[in-house]
Structures are given as structure tokens and as C-alpha cells.
Fold this protein.
Amino acid sequence: MATARAMAESVEELSAGVVSARVSDVMAEFGPAGLDARHKRTWRWMLERPGVVRVGQRLIDAVPRAVVSAQRAFLNGFARRLASVLEELGPDLVVGNHGWLATALALARQRHGLRIPTLSYVTEPLDANALWAEPRVDRTLVAAGTARDDLVRLGVPAETIEVVGYPVQRRFRRAPGRDEARQGLGLGPRFTCLVSLGAEGVAGRPGDVVRALAATGAQVVVIAGRNEALARELAGIAAATPGVFVRGFVDDMERYVAAADVVVGKAGPASVMETLAVGRPLILTAYAGLNERRIADFVQRRGLGELVPHGRGIAESVQRLQQSATLRHDAEARIDALGFDRMADGLGRYLLHCAETGRPPEPPGTVELA
């Protein structure tokens, strides 16, 4: 949903409000709601077991044609319903941001009379697995050449794939300055480490990690998300430890990232890209799927942060940044060079052209995440 909101925002901004964009969780909104709910529950269960995620991804990538055939079989009824709903709504363009939607939209076009142009956007920034390998999609958009190469290997025609960069919402790309953000959040004017835990936590015991970070002298802000049990545990540590602040779910994450000098968390695609769009280096502590491993490798290779999969090393990595303004400034300069504004604007213009003409621009004129 994060990339969908970012694309919708770019389209509306670039068209000065002439074009409207609607973001929908279509399986939940239009059905089959039961299948959608089971899928989401299964994915949450798998995220708690990263090894299962990685084995599963390797298995489906070994048999991409079988995966696509299976998806066509169980999504055909949804595709029929989707074609009817979309024809009634009458948009000029439909962009799907999920592997199942790639298949459903292709079926809607091929079998069920959908006349509206469709695109599929692969939300994994640097790779693609067999869930996205539907070869009949009108056009598949990816953030980087590595994802395009994966899709070609999995059977998607190269001429239907466009590299368009990764969209991040404007609130992250236009986040407040560090001092303004700290003042607005009631934080002190000192080196700050933001720890984003959420439901999945970080490597090692979260309480031990937070204590070790506080021992470096850093101001530590912990976002526990909707993990209420973890929030209660850490609130006790904060009460006994000066300079530690614990928050639950927040809807202004961009301000917390902007207030930080470094962000500690898991290698989730959207959260990593949003942190980079604000301009902050990362200490990545864990990854679930192979897609997240690719993100961690990218962050390390480009000098945008580190992967520290052992709890005891997190504080040491943060302390190195704390003690070296040069390290921080160099990382922030490399982050700025990624060009998130250019990617958002380029992709927005691409989608506007498709909506207005029914075909992609030539050449696409977008920026690759690389």
C-alpha cells in the first residue's frame, strides 16, 4: 500500500489535481475477502518464521510456470468479478501492486473482457519472485534492473518490463529538518538513534538492545508499533533509563526518522526506502525473505548503512556513527544521490502518460534504483 499511495500522490500532484487517483485494497474491498484474510494471516505467520519465507521463495522460483498456473486457477473467479467492477468504475488506468493482482488483471484482460489498460508494479525494490511472473500482463514495472533480470529468468517477456524506480510518499521526501523534528517531538538536541521494532522486533532481545544503545550515550527513541506487550516491557526500561523514549504505533513516522541520526530496524522494503528518502543511514538487524536480504546487501554495498544480525553488535555500529561526523555525512551524501524525488516524479509522469494515451511513453524517462 505504501507504493500505491506514493504513486497516487505523484499523479495527482503532477496533474495539478486534474487527474484523481484512488488507492484500494481490492481483494478486501471487492472480494474474495475470505481468501484475502487467509493470505494476510498466513503471511504474518510466515514473517515470524523467516526460514520458512526463504525456503518458500526458493521453492516457488524453482517452478515459476506451475506457480503462475496455480494462481490463474484460484484467482479466475476474482478476476471475473474484478473485470466487472473496474468496467463499472471506469478508470483510465489500473496499476496492481501485488503478485496476485498481476495474475488477476491479466485474466481480467484476457478472459473476462476488461478493456481498461493495466500495469503491474513489483513492490520488491531489487528483485522479483515467481508470484510476479505472469507473462500476460500488459506491462510490468520494476524499481531496478536486477528485478527485471529476475522476471526475464522467470519467463516474463523482456519487452513488457520497464525499469521505473521506487516511489516514496512526499511526507518522507519532504520531512522536516533534524532540529525541527526533535523540537516538535520533545526530544533533546543530541545524537539520536531511532529503533523501529513493530511486531517483528530486532535481532537479539529488544530490551537488551535498547539498554546497550542507551549505554552509548545516545538518545534512544523506540517505536514498538502495535506490539503492545513489547511496548509495556520497554516502557519499564524507559522509566529507569534517562534518554530512552518509547512510542507505540505512530502515523507521523517521517518526523521520527527525521529526528534521528541513525535508524535501527528490519530490512523491510517500504521502511528502508522511506528511511533513505528522509536521508538517514540504517543499521539493519534482521531480514525475512530473500527480497529483504537483497535490500540489506544493497544498503551495505552502497555505503548506506550496515547489516548487524547479532544483537550485541548493534550498539557498536551505532557508536561508530556517533563518534564520526564524517561517517554520517558521507552516508547521507550517498543516500541523497539515490534521487527519490526524481524517481517519484518520473514514475508519476509515466503513469500520467499511460492514463492519458493508453500506452507507455517512449523512452520511459525514469530513474532506476541501483
Remarks:
- The beta strands are 94-96, 118-121, 140-142, 161-163, 192-196, 219-223, 244-247, 262-265, 282-284, 305-307.
